[in-house]
Amino acid sequence: MNLPALYEIADQYLQDVAKLQDLDLDPQTIADTLEGMAGDLEVKATNVAMFIRNLESLADQIKQAEAAMSARRKALETRADHIREYLLSNMQRTGITKIESPYFKIALRNNPPSVVVDDPSLIPAKYMRQAPPPPPAPDKKEIKAAIDFGETVPGAHLESKVSVSIK
């Protein structure tokens, strides 16, 4: 059974409620009629909730796959670094500085000097980088506490929202 879209069912429900209000019916008849009309709406809402759960489940599975792939990538990079060090060590040990093959050339090269920091606490301040301070940001907990206490906070207000809970 294919039901119309949820918004179409909701629109029809609201139209029917408006029509019922215009009729001179007793409260029990109105309640029974509304209960009967809500059936399609409840079925469609349940189907929409199932679809939401499926999307959330798929998103969670993708997140887990991303984490697994990231861990695998890092492991492969670490392994490649260790094997590169193994190759360097053995080429240096044997005195071989260059190897040519049909696939690529392997050669030892002297890199430019790089700075090694032995003890950062001994470095003069003029050689230290200063990170820029973070820009000021509203402290929502403090603002809420102030408003709850009865203060007016310009540029802020409390707002209650409604959400859908699917358990």
Key descriptive features of the protein:
about 170 residues; mainly alpha; 2 strands
Short précis:
The protein is built from 3 helices and 2 strands. The protein has 167 residues and is mainly alpha-helical.
Structure report:
With 167 residues, the protein is mainly alpha-helical. The chain contains three helices and two strands. It has helices at residues 6-22, 27-94, 140-148; strands at residues 98-100, 105-107. A two-stranded antiparallel sheet has the order 1-2. Helix 1 packs antiparallel against helix 2 (27-94). The protein is elongated. The model has no long low-confidence stretch (mean pLDDT 89).
Number of H/I helices: 3
Count of distinct strands:
2
Oligomer category: single chain
Strand order of the largest sheet: 1-2
The share of residues in extended strands comes to: under 5%
Distance between the termini: 25 Å
pLDDT < 50 stretches: none
Instruction: Tell me the series of helices and strands, N- to C-terminal.
Output: HHEEH
User: Portion of residues in helices?
Assistant: 55-70%
Biggest sheet, in brief? 2 strands, antiparallel
* Helix/strand structural class: mainly alpha
Q: Per the principal axes of the C-alpha atoms, what is the gross shape?
A: elongated
Radius of gyration: 34 Å
Summed over residues and divided by their number, the pLDDT gives a mean of 89
